[in-house]
């Protein structure tokens, strides 16, 4: 899961499984519920039929494919409107950053690492060696909730991927096309 606003709708329409961090799921009245994608706070309200969970460094397998959880951390989010601002910090009772996890996906001798939206984890990412593809956030220059370009380059030097796909940059904020 990464910015999973419509995850439940996509899973239902496509009959696809959902893979997420174990912290995103809670058993309520015998049902496995995920944090409601469009609910506020930490409300476990949404049932997913095909749900698979994992933790950091845990691997799950589907036929010939394996998926391993990668340590990630979402940074604080600050929203500004004119002279006003509000900062949301990740924490044990906060929705920001809850369930953050990356995925190392291996299939047919190829590896894709998707870091989602995260701060830099030099030590933990040393074990990810030469992925064929690395999806990495670079948008932290303006909003430090994720890595900036310099930190992303450091992560690239650590993992040495063959191909890099940058993400989480120039995301529109209040209709600004080039926010970061």
| CATH level-3 fold name of the largest domain | Metallo-beta-lactamase, Chain A
β content, as a range?
A: 25-35%
Strand arrangement across the biggest beta sheet: 6-7-10-11-12-13
Over all CA atoms, what is the radius of gyration? 17 Å
Low-confidence stretches: none
The major β-sheet equals: 6 strands, mixed
What overall form do the CA principal axes indicate? Answer: globular
What is the highest CATH level, the class of the largest domain? Answer: Alpha Beta
- Number-wise, the strands total 13
Number of helices: 3
What's the name of the CATH homologous superfamily of the largest domain? Answer: Ribonuclease Z/Hydroxyacylglutathione hydrolase-like
Terminal CA distance: 23 Å
CATH architecture grouping of the largest domain: 4-Layer Sandwich
Proportion of residues in helical segments: 10-25%
How many domains? The number is 2
Mean pLDDT figure: 89
Order of helices and strands: HEEEEEEEEEEEHEHE
Counting helices, strands and paired strands, the structural category is: mainly beta
Overall description:
This protein is mostly beta strands and 180 residues long. It has 2 domains: 1-54, no CATH class; 55-180, Ribonuclease Z/Hydroxyacylglutathione hydrolase-like (Metallo-beta-lactamase, Chain A), CATH 3.60.15. It is 13% helix and 34% strand. It has helices at residues 7-14, 122-125, 149-159, and strands spanning 18-21, 25-28, 31-35, 44-47, 51-54, 59-62, 65-70, 77-81, 84-88, 102-107, 110-114, 133-137, 163-167. It has a 6-stranded mixed β-sheet, with helices on one face. A hairpin with an 8-residue loop joins strand 3 (31-35) and strand 4. The longest helix is centred in the C-terminal third of the chain and has 11 residues, at 149-159.
């Amino acid at each position: 899961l990464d910015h999973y606003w419509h995850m439940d709708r996509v899973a239902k329409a496509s009959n696809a499984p959902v893979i997420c961090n174990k912290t995103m799921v809670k058993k309520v009245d015998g049902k496995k519920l995920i944090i409601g994608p469009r609910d506020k706070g930490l409300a476990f309200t949404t049932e997913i039929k095909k749900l698979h969970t994992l933790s950091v460094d845990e691997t799950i397998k589907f036929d010939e494919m394996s998926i391993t959880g990668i340590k990630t951390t979402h940074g604080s989010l600050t929203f500004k409107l004119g002279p006003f601002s509000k900062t949301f910090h990740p924490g044990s009772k906060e929705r920001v950053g809850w369930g953050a996890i990356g995925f190392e996906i291996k299939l047919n001798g190829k590896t894709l690492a998707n870091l989602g939206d995260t701060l830099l984890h030099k030590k933990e990412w040393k074990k990810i060696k030469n992925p064929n593809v690395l999806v990495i956030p670079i948008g932290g220059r303006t909003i430090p909730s994720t890595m900036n370009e310099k930190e992303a380059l450091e992560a690239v030097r650590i993992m040495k991927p063959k191909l890099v796909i940058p993400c989480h940059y120039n995301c529109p904020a209040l209709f600004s096309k080039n926010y970061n």
